[in-house]
Write a structure and sequence with these properties.
By secondary structure, the chain is of the alpha/beta class. It folds into 3 domains: 33 residues; 186 residues, 3-Layer(aba) Sandwich (Rossmann fold), CATH 3.40.50; 104 residues, Rossmann fold (3-Layer(aba) Sandwich). Helix content is 34%, strand content 22%. The protein is built from 10 helices and 13 strands. Strands 1, 2, 3, 4, 5, 6, 7, 8, 9, 10, 11, 12 and 13 form a 13-stranded mixed β-sheet that branches. α4 packs across α9.
Length: 362
C-alpha cells in the first residue's frame, strides 16, 4: 500500500521545524548533496548566459510560466488564466510541457487538470520541449505556453513569467535537496514578470516584504510585478458535474491533497465554512492505487464525513464520484489578479500582435 499519511516530513526537515540531533544531522547530509547540484545548475546557466549553450526558437511566440521552487506555487491556474487571455485575443494557443509523472500512454497530472479547465486547447507533452513547441506550431498553434519551463533554457522564449507562492516564497532558502530551490534566487533576473500567487492569503505588509526580497535577489525589480489570489470557483465531480461552494457550509468534510503545498489548500477550504473533520497531505504527484482509494474511503467513512474533498489535480487521477459510500468532489480554483494586471497585459500585447487572429475568428 502506497498511501502516505504524512507527506510533510521532508518539508518540516528542510524548513527547520523538525528539531533534534537526527534532524540536524539529516540537514547536514542534504547540504552536502546540494553542493554538486548547485555547481551543475550554476554551470549550466553560465553556459547559456555566455552563449556557449544555444537556445532554439519555435516558429511562433513562446511564453514560459515557471517557478524557482519545487512543489506547488499555484502555477496551473495561472497557465489557464494566460491561455484564456490568448484565446480572447483571437489567437490559437497550445500548451507544451515535459509531461512529468505521466504514465505510459497517459497524461501528466497537470495536463489532465488543464484538459478539464481548458477543453479543446491542445497540450503537447514532450521531454524535448523544442520538438514539442514546433509540433504545436505545426498543428496550428499561434502562441505556445510553456508550462513549467523557466529552467528549460534550450527552448528560447519571448516572455518569462515566474510564479512565486506568497505562503512559501523562498524555497526554505536553500537549493534542493537541502531546500526547495531549483536554482539560486538570482536566476529570477531572467524573468520579465513575477506573479505572486495566493497573495490573498497574506497581508499587504508581507507582500511588500516578499517583493523587496525578490528584487534584492534579482538585482533589480522585475519589469512587471503582479499579485494574484486563488479564488475557489465551484466544486467538480469526476463525471463532470458541478456543485456550488455554498453546499459545503456546515458539512463534515474529509479532505486530502497530493500537491506541493497542501497547507494552502487546507487554508482555502477553511474559508468555505465547512467543518474539516480530517485532512491528509500526500506526496506531490501521488499515484493513487486501488488500495489507496479504498483506504481513503474507509478513513472518510470512519470520520463520519458527509463529503470527501480534494484538488482537481488529484480528482482527475482518481476518476470516481465516491470514495466508498462518501461523495467525492474537487475544488476548482480560478485566478483573480489583485495588482499588476494592466502591466502584465502590456507585456503580452506586442507578442500577441505578432500574428493575426486564428482562422475563423473575427
Amino acid at each position: 500500500m502506497s498511501l502516505l499519511p504524512d507527506a510533510d516530513s521532508f518539508k518540516r526537515l528542510v524548513d527547520g521545524s523538525a528539531r533534534g540531533p537526527a534532524a540536524t544531522l539529516a540537514r547536514a547530509g542534504l547540504a552536502v548533496l546540494a553542493a554538486p547540484y548547485g555547481i551543475a545548475v550554476r554551470a549550466r546557466n553560465a553556459g547559456y548566459d555566455a552563449g556557449l549553450c544555444r537556445s532554439s526558437r519555435a516558429p511562433v511566440p513562446v511564453i514560459s510560466v515557471g517557478n524557482l521552487t519545487l512543489g506547488g506555487t499555484g502555477k496551473t491556474p495561472l497557465v489557464a488564466w494566460l491561455v484564456r487571455r490568448i484565446a480572447a485575443a483571437g489567437l490559437a494557443p497550445a500548451i507544451v510541457s515535459r509531461g512529468y509523472g505521466a504514465r505510459a500512454g497517459g497524461q501528466s497530472d497537470e495536463a489532465a487538470e488543464l484538459a478539464v479547465l481548458l477543453p479543446g486547447v491542445p497540450h503537447v507533452a514532450n521531454r524535448d520541449r523544442v520538438a514539442g513547441a514546433r509540433a504545436a506550431a505545426a498543428g496550428g498553434a499561434q502562441v505556445v505556453v510553456l508550462d513549467d519551463g523557466f529552467q528549460h533554457r534550450r527552448l528560447a522564449r519571448d516572455l518569462d513569467i515566474v510564479a512565486v507562492d506568497a505562503t512559501d516564497p523562498f524555497g526554505c532558502g536553500h537549493l534542493f535537496p537541502r531546500g526547495l530551490l531549483r536554482e539560486p534566487m538570482r536566476g529570477l533576473a531572467r524573468a520579465q514578470a513575477v506573479v505572486l500567487t495566493r497573495a490573498g492569503l497574506v497581508d499587504e505588509r508581507r507582500r511588500q516584504e516578499i517583493r523587496a526580497a525578490l528584487a534584492a535577489a534579482r538585482g533589480a525589480p522585475p519589469t512587471v510585478w503582479a499579485e494574484a489570489a486563488h479564488r475557489p470557483l465551484q466544486l467538480r465531480t469526476a463525471s463532470g458535474g458541478t456543485l456550488a461552494l455554498e453546499s459545503l457550509r456546515g458539512m463534515r468534510i474529509a479532505a486530502f491533497a497530493g500537491i506541493g503545498n497542501p497547507a494552502a489548500f487546507r487554508a482555502t477550504l477553511s474559508g468555505l465554512g465547512a467543518d474539516i473533520v480530517g485532512f491528509r497531505a500526500l506526496a506531490d504527484h501521488h499515484a493513487y492505487s486501488a488500495a489507496d482509494i479504498a483506504a481513503l474511503g474507509a478513513w472518510a467513512g470512519g470520520l463520519r464525513a458527509d463529503m470527501a474533498i480534494t484538488t482537481l489535480k488529484d480528482l482527475v487521477k482518481i476518476g470516481m464520484d465516491r470514495l466508498g459510500q462518501i461523495p467525492l468532489a474537487a475544488v476548482e480554483i480560478a485566478i483573480d489578479m489583485l495588482a499588476g494586471e494592466a502591466d502584465l497585459a502590456s507585456l503580452l500585447a506586442p507578442l500577441l500582435a505578432q500574428t493575426g487572429p486564428a482562422p475563423g475568428h473575427s
